[in-house]
Amino acid sequence: MTRSSAETRSEMGHGVFQGMAKKKTKDRKQDKQSPVQVGEHHRYQIKSGNLAGTFVARAFPKPPTQARGLIAEASGATEEAAIIALHEVLDSREQRRAEDRRTDEHTGASVPSVEEYVEAIGHVALTRPQRAMLLALALSGATGLTETQMASAAGYKSQASGARSFTSAGLLIAEYLSSEAGSTDPSGDPDARSIMGFRAEPEGAGDPDLWIAHPELREAIQAVL
C-alpha cells in the first residue's frame, strides 16, 4: 500500500468517526429536550413537559388574549401527574374565589373580587367603545351615570346602542368568570349587567335611572384601563 493510499484511508476513517461523533452529540442534545405538550383546562392554556429532569405543567392565559404571564404551575412524577396536579390547583383556586365573592344587596348577584375583575378585563375582547364606557362608569364612582351618559361616553348616537354594548360587555366578563348572569331588574329582562353594577332608584319622579358600578369593578377598571 502506498503512503498516499494509507493517508487517504486514514482521512476517510477519521471523517466517518467524526461524523458519528457529531451524530451522537446531536442525539444526546435531542434526548435532553422534551417536546412541550399544549392543552386546555377551562379558560387556561396548559403547557407541560420535562424541565431539567422534572415533569412540570404550567397554566397561562388562553389565546387569542394578548395577556401574558404564568397563572399557576405544578410538578409530578410523570407528565400526566403534573397536569392532574395543576388541574387541582386551578380548580381549588376557582373554588376559593367563588367562596370569597360577596352578594350584592341590590341585585342578589355574586360580585367577583378586584383580582377576578382585573384578570377578566385583561383577557376578554372588549371593544374600544366598551372600554370607554366602563372607564366613564368607574370614574363616576358611587354617583353613577344614566344610560344616555354611558352611551355618549362610548361615542354611541343612541341610548339603545349603548345599552346593547354594555350588556355585551357584561356577558363577556360573566362568561370568562363563569358567573351566573342574570338580573333581578323589575323589567324582567335578564342580562349580564348585574355582574358590573346595579340600577339605582331615581331620586325624583321623572328622573332617569342611574347605573352604578360595583366598587370592585371600579377599582379594577381604573387599575387596568
Automatic annotation (TrEMBL):
Region described as Disordered: spans on this chain: 1-44, 180-200
Biased composition (Basic and acidic residues): 1-12
Domain of life: Bacteria
Protein's recorded name: Uncharacterized protein
Biological source species: Palleronia pontilimi
